């Protein structure tokens, strides 16, 4: 336990060092004046389109979460879910963490439905289904990039190829494991886990199995996941056009998912550094300067911040809060939560 706490103590500074160091190196190499010059020439109408696409992406993600809840018989009003999702986006993009938004969603939903284990399962599977679609898109783009079907072949380093294929395999396995969570816990946990840990783990495993989408609901959730990531890629295309880039669409379909996958590594802060390095790597293959690649990356991040700021308004107006510590667990192994009529659940 002490070794884990020691590692966590150093992880924060390490993340800022890696992200900040890589970012400063790329900016210094590209010349900040050149990056600013690219920004000044951007088409504002296309930047506005990118903002609309980001809003559409948030809506699709919220609809996916709503579909998962509806499949469990716990449908929630879309406006409320959208407000909580925006509050989570605000936490993700304005706080130095990639899980703060999930914690906000988990606690707000847990208070509303009366179960933190079920809220946790819904948020986990929402993330997982999005990650599954992301991995499949990245894998397909890798296959297409190795051929000349859609234009010149695009070079991807072997480590990135292995990383992407590995994440795709893990995503598929975790989806399958979610369907069989109670059975797996019974096989792996019998006689091997402390009695105090078995009950809460059983609660989470049962909730995961309950929330795992079945039949047409699985197709609906996966389709919404693909829709989100296609819109996310389209946002990058719109900003690229705003900066005057004329590059193959396959470049975007490849570098955007791989950037999101690499950015999951805990050594980066909000994907900073990873995004800029991968954009420079792929766009450099088609003659795009590092300054233009960084201008694209910074503009994408700015659009995300603009839309995420709406979550700050949700918090300011009392639609959600960022206090993510749930109440103490009760005897049933799940945290006791407020009734749906609680004043915090506007």
Describe the 3D structure.
The protein is mostly helical. It has one domain. It is 74% helix and 0% strand. It is built from 13 helices and no strands. α5 packs across α6, α6 crosses α10 and α10 packs across α11. The longest helix has 30 residues. The protein is globular and about 55 Å long.
Please render the helix and strand layout as text.
Blueprint lengths: L1 H29 L1 H9 L3 H28 L6 H17 L5 H14 L2 H30 L12 H22 L1 H9 L5 H17 L3 H28 L6 H14 L11 H11 L5 H27 L30
Helix pairs in contact: 2-13, 3-4, 3-6, 3-10, 3-13, 4-5, 4-13, 5-6, 6-7, 6-9, 6-10, 6-11, 8-9, 10-11, 11-12, 12-13
Helix content, binned percent: over 70%
The main sheet comes to: none
Task: Identify low-pLDDT runs.
Answer: 1-6, 329-333, 335-346
Shape: globular
Mean pLDDT: 77
The radius of gyration computed from the alpha-carbon positions, rounded to a whole number of angstroms, is 21 Å
**How many helices?**
13
Class inferred from helices and paired strands: mainly alpha
Q: In sequence order, what are the helices and strands, one letter per element? A: HHHHHHHHHHHHH
Count structural domains.
1
Tally of DSSP β-strands: 0
**First and last CA, distance:** 39 Å
Strand content: under 5%
């Amino acid at each position: 336990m002490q070794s884990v706490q020691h590692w966590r103590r150093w992880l924060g500074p390490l993340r800022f060092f890696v992200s900040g160091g890589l970012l400063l190196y790329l900016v210094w190499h590209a010349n900040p004046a050149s990056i600013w010059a690219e920004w000044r020439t951007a088409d504002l109408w296309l930047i506005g389109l990118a903002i609309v696409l980001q809003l559409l992406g948030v809506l699709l993600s919220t609809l996916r979460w709503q579909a998962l809840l509806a499949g469990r018989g716990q449908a929630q009003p879309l406006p409320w879910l959208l407000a909580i999702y925006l509050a989570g986006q605000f936490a993700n993009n304005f706080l130095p963490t990639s899980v703060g938004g999930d914690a906000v969603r988990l606690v707000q939903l847990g208070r509303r439905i009366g179960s933190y284990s079920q809220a946790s399962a819904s948020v986990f599977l929402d993330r997982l289904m999005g990650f599954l679609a992301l991995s499949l898109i990245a894998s397909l783009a890798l296959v297409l990039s190795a051929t000349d079907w859609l234009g010149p072949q695009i070079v991807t380093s072997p480590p990135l190829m292995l990383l992407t294929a590995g994440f795709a395999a893990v995503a598929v396995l975790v989806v399958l494991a979610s369907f069989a969570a109670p059975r797996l816990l019974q096989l792996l946990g019998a006689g091997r886990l402390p009695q105090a840990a078995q009950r809460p783990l059983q609660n989470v495993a049962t909730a995961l199995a309950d929330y795992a989408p079945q039949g047409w609901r699985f197709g609906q959730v996966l389709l919404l996941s693909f829709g989100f990531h296609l819109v996310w890629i389209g946002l990058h295309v719109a900003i690229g056009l705003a900066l005057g880039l004329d590059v193959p669409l396959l470049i975007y379909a490849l570098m955007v998912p791989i950037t999101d996958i690499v950015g999951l590594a805990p050594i980066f802060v909000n994907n900073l550094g990873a995004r800029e390095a991968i954009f420079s790597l792929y766009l450099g293959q088609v003659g795009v300067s590092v300054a233009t690649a960084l201008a694209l990356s910074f503009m994408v991040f700015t659009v995300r911040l603009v839309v995420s700021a709406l979550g700050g308004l949700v918090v300011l107006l009392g639609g959600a809060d960022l206090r993510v510590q749930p109440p103490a667990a009760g005897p049933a192994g799940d945290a006791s939560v407020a009734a749906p009529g609680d004043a915090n659940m506007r």
